[in-house]
């Protein structure tokens, strides 16, 4: 029973040459590596259809050309090099914020270790942020851990949950399509991935029936203990309604599943009708007994949203209704390895941005074009490609309806069909997108995953696609 | 907020809520309890931030709230955090990182050209020229290349391949990842990991979590904590009965012991590893912290190569470095790297997969690491100031190392080996039998009792030797030498005074100890 979702690596592009030679192809995502190569070739003056490589395969906004927010970078720069505060060139709120943040660091330096669990003043601000976001539902510092990226917290919580001494092994219900590092973490820790398929025709909705089916499929195979949800969806872009969240919470309670909720895209909701509501808020408002019994971990990060600082590695987890002894144990685990100060400072800046009246207000928001209806119209008008509406998140995830000829050709060259498509796209248009196989998809369906960032991206994709369909029909 | 001591959960049960839950039937059993959670993480302890540090935090809070104590501040001499103790960052490093962070500063005349050049090089290696982009899981390529160049230069020309270099989130992250890869087998074939005693407790915590078998080899306290090859063999042979020794960990310069291994000793260790087919993990984060003029840092890599191709092409070696120590003390940046030699290609593939689960190390930390391996050169503008700052930090540390050794050795009932390197003193303390008994009655280690009393009476927080491991029947504590020289002197005097009181209080007497009026006024 091959775990439905990703066995491959999303970050395969980063592997060195020698390592590549030693890894079986099926386990690698060679697209990224080839993209780097093409970039090098272009730099050395090679002649290609387009002069510039565009890499939109990852939801990393800076890589795709988006500029970081000045306020964020200015404050961090002053924290690193406090002499900068003497300069009048920097706005007053930048200098004040840097001063306040440095005051929370031991020795007044961004170079000292953070206390285990996080800088207390920043944890307090995280609590205020969560409470504000959730219309007053309280949040307690003892339940929050700041880590070097949400992924670190995710792995640590999973580490506690996955009991490899038990038989059968711990099962984790994970969405399909999913965020590959999430699934990889489960496998790495010795757990079993139990995929539940999101309903593509219904905008990648999470259906409770499907959760039941997935749970049923785990019988005799593993012991499902965790329900992993991503909202807004990654890479699907689906935003759950409150009703849907309530259903999931009830299901988790009924079936005794620990909820792990990845909410890193909570600030990336585009559609007017969709509104992000946190699992914590919904749980609280469902009242006792659920609100006092459902065990849950929610994750947030500075990597996405309007700040988009993936490389700074800042995130947090908030735990709800977790046994106090377990919390103490978790605290010891977290104290093994301090998190990066930079990430903590960036977290403060994200959840506590300049307000109207502050010199740095308004921040230039990182705009995303994914939700552009025009993009969807174009994609849906082409033969052989369709795309669900993108309500939020970081990607578009169009479906490819590949002609048999293309699938055959892919087989001949030993590639998965969507990889084949992406590989051709890369070679012919210097546009690098991700293959849906990395995220998982229903059998015999194919997708591409990309971060819609400019008209140029749509142009290259469209012209390539039309030609591709002609070539293989 | 009291972390680690008294967590409450969200939606703390109000009286009525609890009643409702109870009304709903039996109080619902949790999914995640100490019985159901991953048993591997249960036993994990980490002395450096353990119970004594939590206690120190509590006392600090009480002080802040105005509660009177016999002292006015808590001195955290437990953790190797230089900046927290007042050490100044290296200007050049902070300039480069600030430039990377906010590249508009590249136009500012306030920054020297050599810093700008470094920043530009780093940014060019980053996606979108930004520290905010994920890097490759192994780290930014040009930084890996810079590290290789540094290693070559440090090791007098012995080649380093940047493909063997991996950036990590602090050295701890790299160490954990390698251990994770190496632990396998069941029962008597379960991986055994040889670690020095005393050791930095990350190793024992990792071994416990991974359910590997811990194999202790004792450093020779009577001989300045030297590593005795005979002791390595003894430990190995004994362990072979019940596990499969696969890994040999060395910390050089040592933590907590501070000894700097001689070249000869390193050769013997590598030869032993070669004979017994052990994967060597060389924790070299203190490579820039060598104070004793009779000692010199030799990297395991260099010594391995100098032993000839039969060794250098077969012994599996992972060496670790970090931004947290040295003369920069940039703990908060979580920068580090490891150089891995002769690793099986399939295992390497698994390593890459493992690293990619955590996406990438903080890019700002990678930038800091780059500056450390690529400092200003003689002809560059920042060289003079950089060298001055570096020498000032290292000079101060060397003086403090010496002072600490001297003062502690002047205390009856205390013996401290020379602090040849690293950042700590690890004196052996005599604990009178009565105190040992009292500790046993309280179910704490005797040196923990000692350290708790030290904390309560003087506000000084150090870590009991039991957290690091020690020969049975011996007791120690580890303190850092990081406070300023003036503060350190006061600290050492207070420790001395405390120790004398402690000896007095627990001396073997029939009658209860009566304090003289002189001792009274000192307390």
TrEMBL record, chain A:
<dbReference type="GO" id="GO:0030170">
    <property type="term" value="F:pyridoxal phosphate binding"/>
</dbReference>
<protein>
    <recommendedName>
        <fullName>alanine transaminase</fullName>
        <ecNumber>2.6.1.2</ecNumber>
    </recommendedName>
</protein>
<comment type="subunit">
    <text>Homodimer.</text>
</comment>
<dbReference type="InterPro" id="IPR015422">
    <property type="entry name" value="PyrdxlP-dep_Trfase_small"/>
</dbReference>
<keyword id="KW-0032">Aminotransferase</keyword>
<comment type="pathway">
    <text>Amino-acid degradation; L-alanine degradation via transaminase pathway; pyruvate from L-alanine: step 1/1.</text>
</comment>
<comment type="similarity">
    <text>Belongs to the class-I pyridoxal-phosphate-dependent aminotransferase family. Alanine aminotransferase subfamily.</text>
</comment>
<keyword id="KW-0663">Pyridoxal phosphate</keyword>
<dbReference type="GO" id="GO:0042853">
    <property type="term" value="P:L-alanine catabolic process"/>
</dbReference>
<feature type="domain" description="Aminotransferase class I/classII large">
    <location>
        <begin position="81"/>
        <end position="403"/>
    </location>
</feature>
<dbReference type="Pfam" id="PF00155">
    <property type="entry name" value="Aminotran_1_2"/>
</dbReference>
<dbReference type="InterPro" id="IPR045088">
    <property type="entry name" value="ALAT1/2-like"/>
</dbReference>
<keyword id="KW-0808">Transferase</keyword>
<dbReference type="InterPro" id="IPR015421">
    <property type="entry name" value="PyrdxlP-dep_Trfase_major"/>
</dbReference>
<dbReference type="InterPro" id="IPR004839">
    <property type="entry name" value="Aminotransferase_I/II_large"/>
</dbReference>
<dbReference type="InterPro" id="IPR015424">
    <property type="entry name" value="PyrdxlP-dep_Trfase"/>
</dbReference>
<dbReference type="GO" id="GO:0004021">
    <property type="term" value="F:L-alanine:2-oxoglutarate aminotransferase activity"/>
</dbReference>
Automatic annotation (TrEMBL), chain B:
<keyword id="KW-0032">Aminotransferase</keyword>
<dbReference type="InterPro" id="IPR045088">
    <property type="entry name" value="ALAT1/2-like"/>
</dbReference>
<dbReference type="InterPro" id="IPR015421">
    <property type="entry name" value="PyrdxlP-dep_Trfase_major"/>
</dbReference>
<keyword id="KW-0663">Pyridoxal phosphate</keyword>
<feature type="region of interest" description="Disordered">
    <location>
        <begin position="1"/>
        <end position="22"/>
    </location>
</feature>
<dbReference type="GO" id="GO:0042853">
    <property type="term" value="P:L-alanine catabolic process"/>
</dbReference>
<comment type="similarity">
    <text>Belongs to the class-I pyridoxal-phosphate-dependent aminotransferase family. Alanine aminotransferase subfamily.</text>
</comment>
<dbReference type="InterPro" id="IPR015424">
    <property type="entry name" value="PyrdxlP-dep_Trfase"/>
</dbReference>
<dbReference type="GO" id="GO:0030170">
    <property type="term" value="F:pyridoxal phosphate binding"/>
</dbReference>
<dbReference type="InterPro" id="IPR015422">
    <property type="entry name" value="PyrdxlP-dep_Trfase_small"/>
</dbReference>
<feature type="domain" description="Aminotransferase class I/classII large">
    <location>
        <begin position="114"/>
        <end position="494"/>
    </location>
</feature>
<dbReference type="GO" id="GO:0004021">
    <property type="term" value="F:L-alanine:2-oxoglutarate aminotransferase activity"/>
</dbReference>
<dbReference type="Pfam" id="PF00155">
    <property type="entry name" value="Aminotran_1_2"/>
</dbReference>
<comment type="subunit">
    <text>Homodimer.</text>
</comment>
<dbReference type="GO" id="GO:0005737">
    <property type="term" value="C:cytoplasm"/>
</dbReference>
<protein>
    <recommendedName>
        <fullName>alanine transaminase</fullName>
        <ecNumber>2.6.1.2</ecNumber>
    </recommendedName>
</protein>
<comment type="pathway">
    <text>Amino-acid degradation; L-alanine degradation via transaminase pathway; pyruvate from L-alanine: step 1/1.</text>
</comment>
<comment type="function">
    <text>Catalyzes the reversible transamination between alanine and 2-oxoglutarate to form pyruvate and glutamate.</text>
</comment>
<dbReference type="InterPro" id="IPR004839">
    <property type="entry name" value="Aminotransferase_I/II_large"/>
</dbReference>
<keyword id="KW-0808">Transferase</keyword>
